[in-house]
Design a protein that fits this description.
Helices cover about 55% and strands about 5% of the residues. The chain has 16 helices and three strands. It is mainly alpha-helical.
Amino acid sequence: MGSAVKPALDVPRIDKGLDDIYVKETSICYVDGQRGRLLYRGFDIQDLAQHSTFEETIFILIHGRLPTRQEFAHARSILAEARAITPDVVRLLRCMPSDAPPIDVLRTAVSYISNFDSERDDPTRAANMRKAQRLIAKVPTIIAAHHRIRNGKRIVPPDPSLGGAEDFLRMVTGRKPDPLSARIMDVALILHADHSMNASAFAAIVSASTLADLYSAIVAAIATLKGPLHGGANEAALRTMLAIAKPEAAEQYVLDTLRNRGRIFGFGHRVYRTYDPRALILREYARQLSELRGQEDLFRISEIMQETTVRELKAKQIYPNVDFYSGLVYHLLGLPMDLFTPVFAVSRVSGWTAHVIEYWDDNRLVRPLDYYVGPTDAAYVPLEERP
């Protein structure tokens, strides 16, 4: 056996997780973890959630400003018309195993549709912005169509006259949602549209930095989103609430979990040291939906979990993040749990594409270093001489 490298006196600092490492300048998204603020292009998420729509938020992220009325109508029309998927994509979805995770199906389908985009390898900014619009428009249709297929139901084609969020719920459930549900879905998509240099956005940037096409970058982002440490926490949080079942059991569950050094899903964040502003918005919508659906106990469980966890972990500044309430909201909207992560992608593809297009304005290949600590004098023995 060869000997290991002796540690040098100037051993480099290893930044696992790349904590506090800046990889690019951006004007897209700002997260103020101390004050609990989230800005898209300077616009506060609170204002966008109250007044804007997902379609307008897409325009803001991609173009960097508010649209005029004419620009908004045009952009909305382009997105609506681009929602449709071709018969060959439907055939691909029908070929998928019925038990295939929807996020895996989405990743495969996005890779597949790239082969039919005549502008796929056009590197110009204008072409990439058009590709971004097509990706943003088709992702929800792909998810909804596959969901219907795997359940043996008729595919519901998109309706260009409807807003994207409302149409997505309609394509998934087969019925037009009530106005409150449609608006809540729209706000949920706004809230998840971007969140600075998160793991999936960074994966997209790494891929894009090689000058791979936009579709390849988004496939990388979707693959990264699949991980339970990134896109799956809301599902885990909802499963916990459903398992607790009764409000009177919620406090003891939290206390027992913390005592046993377990994890309360949906709490804590790498950036926020106070309440995640997105969680505060979804909390109110969860309350409204729970009353509308007659599931007040489930919301009460979430409230007791939040109160207990924040109280017990006050010294560590642990607060609920967006995942704690988003799963509950999606559940009350009638979405199955294994669609929660794909729904994340429905929204976040707008942020991913914005970051990639911005990065290409001043591209540099992402090539970090690793510090070698293995052997340096291992002796090779020919195969015939080995025992």
